[in-house]
Amino acid sequence: MPTAVIVPHKLANRCIYRLAGRDRQNSASYYTPESLTRCLVKYSLKELLKDKTADDILNLKICEPAMGSAAFLNEAINQLAEAYLEIKQKELDRRIKQEDYLQEKQKVKMLLADRNVFGIDLNPVAVELAEVSLWLNSIYQGAHVPWFGMQLHCGNSLIGARRQVYDPGLIPQSNRHKNYWYDNEPQRVLLTEQLPEKSIFHFLLPDPGMANYTDKVIKQLAPDNIKKIKDWQKEFCKEAYEEFQIEQLISLSKKIDELWQRHVKEQRRMRNRTTDPLAVFGQDENKLQRSKLSQKDKILAQERMSEGVGNSSAYRRLKLVMDYWCALWFWRIEQADLLPTRSEYLMELSVILGEMPIAPEKQLDIPLFPETTPEAEAQEFITKHGSVNLTMLCSRYPRLQLVEEIAKEKRFFHWELEFADIFADNNGFDFILGNSPWIKIEWHEGDVLGDAEPLFVLRKFSASKLGKLREETFTKYSQLQADYFNVYEGLEGTQDFLNAYQNYPLLKGTQTNLFKCFLPQGWSNSNKNAIQGFLHPEGVYDDPKGGHFRKRIYQTLKLHFQFQNELNLFTDIDHHNKFSINIYGSKKTILILLI
Predict the structure, then answer these.
(1) In terms of domains, do 12 and 42 share one?
(2) What is the pTM of this model?
(3) Are 166 and 181 in contact (CB under 8 A)?
């Protein structure tokens, strides 16, 4: 429930009691009762562990895409540890002494926490809480401190670039062309598959939903900038491509694929060097080398993030390219002048990827290579992919600096980049689960203005009175208009991104709610034998415009447990509302309905 606060009002001796839950709603911070968490994990694992050996359990990759404090991950660890010990004892025909069982169980939990679980959350505080809760849940006497630098991420699970491509035939070479690329679903290319010879990554191409700001009040407040954005959209998205530009896009896609494959190898090595040895019941201790937390942090900072290093890694280059594309959906209205032309966009992508070398203004007094990487290996990377210093590049070019600022603020998350080795070695996750946020993305200016002037929320005004009060409030609070634009850009950009056909084709025509978007994300980021367990409202089953989406749901739905909120397990929704635990998988549907 949103928190209630008392806000002093300008009228003498009066206060207004109002709700202030915007921050909490934006971060999607909602608690799931433990009884539902246990139930979801129990029946998900019942499907997942069919025909699995004990050793198979230790190889499972589990992800919670909106993890909060990792309640579902911890519950999965608890139940998987018990399942492993039960199966392993039967396989070995050997029982663990009762007095040793708890210690052995905690060791298995530590191994699972340290190697098998992954999570994403938009709220950085939630990520820190998740790290602590996973540690405390798996701690035992003599245990090492787990390191989650490559497992738990602060990001937006729904907004990011993907390993998907378009055929160049969909790129118009004349303005009479009718079937544009963005009217089609891009083709998925797994990291285990070879990139088609003639293909273009979807995040190299524009979309009419980018910076698509249509609110009447926004147009009145920034008419010149909105016009610049509309003119940019026409040139950037609608105009035909020249043949040489299409060839350039194909060439850039090949370069991206090369860097992606390089990143897979580098990430695999980083994960190996930052994983601690641990022996559990029925397993020999592996030959991994134990390293300090500070050393692990240095490996991540230098080799992956290129901090304090003159040459940027494959990861950093790819991330900036993907962030650039995402940032165009959320471009700042007040900086419309910085929007790129098509030729500028392609040129800057070439520079970022190392295809077009650019001389530094001065020699930086920092090492060219990470301290933790052999020099011969680092030199080979530069020979093949060129030397690029993105820190210098972004400081020199305001547009790229803005891209980094928007990406940091909106926390774009590119699944197949962040978890590249998981997708390359496992074709995605084995188990994706959680209770994703039940939120409709809608712009209401009162949510912003009400923080400064509560009357925006508490009273209904005519358009003229509302406009006058808005103007007075902006004058009184100098930073408020910038915040107003920022929140609008975030909400409108998110809505347009989620509604774009190329991003969420299964949801075309439906009313977008965040929980719906997590389902196709769960399916696409899982391997073919995976299970997905989600707790969500029943709206997907009766949406009159959701037939296409519902068809996909029924093809994968294995178990369905329906509940009614009579006991107010969720205090934020009406006690008559229905919700359900839904277990999805690729095998033949088995439907169970419990009310």
Answers:
(1) no
(2) 0.92
(3) yes
Please, are residues 529 and 73 in contact by the beta-carbon 8 Å criterion? no
CB atoms within 10 A of CB 221: 18
Task: State how far the alpha carbon of 38 is from the alpha carbons of 30, 70, 283, 538, in Å.
Answer: 17, 13, 28, 20
β-pair partners for 584: 532, 557
Phi, psi (degrees; rounded to nearest 5) at 311: -110, 130
| Mean pLDDT taken over the chain | 90
Compute the distance between CA of residue 260 and CA of residue 263 in angstroms, rounded to an integer: 5
Closest CA to 157 of 330, 414, 410: 414
527 lies in the same domain as 585: yes
Contact 177, 169 (CB under 8 A): no
Structurally, the chain folds into a number of domains equal to 3
The secondary element (H helix, E strand) that includes residue 519 is: helix 514-524
Domain shared by 92 and 193, yes or no:
no
pLDDT tens figures, 272-329: 999 999 999 999 877 677 889 999 999 999 999 999 999 999 999 999 999 999 999 9
Q: Each residue of 324-347: pLDDT tens digit?
A: 999 999 999 999 999 999 999 999
Residue 282, token pair as written in the block: 């029925």
pLDDT band for position 66 (cuts 50, 70, 90): very high
Q: pLDDT: is 151 or 575 the higher one? A: 151
Closest-CA residue to 528 (of 442, 441, 428): 428
Interatomic CA distance for residues 225 and 222, integer angstroms: 6
Q: 404 with 389, same domain?
A: yes
48 shares a domain with 10: no
* Domain carrying residue 562: 31-158+428-439+513-594
